[in-house]
Amino acid sequence: MSSLFSQEKIDKLADKLGVFVSVASEKVKEVTEKTLSKDSPLEKNLKEATSDKNWGCPTTILSEIARCSFNCTDYLQIMKFLWTALSEPPKKWRRIYKALTLLEYLLKNGCERVVEETRENQFALRVLQQFSFTEEGRDKGAGIREKAKLVCRLAFDPELLKEERETAQKNRNKFVGIGARGERTGSGFSASGPSSSFSSSSASFSSFSSSGLNSLGTRMRAGELHTAGRPFGAARPGALSPAASKSRDERQR
């Protein structure tokens, strides 16, 4: 009489257990990879705005990216992603063109720091003004060359930039409702950013740092964020502190 736990049965059980463990491990690995690689809403929008697909990006996505540019952390992510897209090889010409379109939109609608950084990285745009790529016998570089020239013109012509930002602000205001008490409602945001603040959270962002070079030689410089010539969070020259302002009001009463 053979043993209840013969070697043959043990081997079969071991084989089944091995298969089960292998399948379970693959499932755990798959779930883990999906969890770790899950893109944030901003990352999804950036990928959509600079995709290599043969169609344009909805204005709603560009608008959301521009809104995020007023947040310090998001700003760094946006600009790093943008300069990387602009440094793609010529065969990715669609992505390069879309990145230029996004940069143009940010110059008109985003944080003013975008203007400063565009000027600092003008070399990348000068290179793109000479962009050349032929696909199936057709020149695919004309649009990129013209768009790069337009972006440079916007960044270095204060009057043109002011006019374009004011026009963009008026267009945004069309989609902003006025509440019963006069408060603004809707998806629009002011030219200086949501609630005139660099961050949508209560955290303080007085400085930022970023680094790296792309293949076009553009450099994301580290330093303080500035608006109207002063660091974010810094008081205007001659401005009173909250305590001093309160004391002055009490004396006037």
From TrEMBL:
GO terms for cellular component: clathrin vesicle coat; endosome; plasma membrane. Residues 186-253 are annotated as: Disordered. One of its GO terms (molecular function) is clathrin binding. It comes from the Eukaryota. Residues 186-212, 228-239 have a biased composition (Low complexity). GO terms for biological process: endocytosis. Pfam families: ENTH. Residues 34-165 form the ENTH domain. This is ENTH domain-containing protein. It comes from Toxoplasma gondii p89. The lineage of its organism: Eukaryota, Sar, Alveolata, Apicomplexa, Conoidasida.
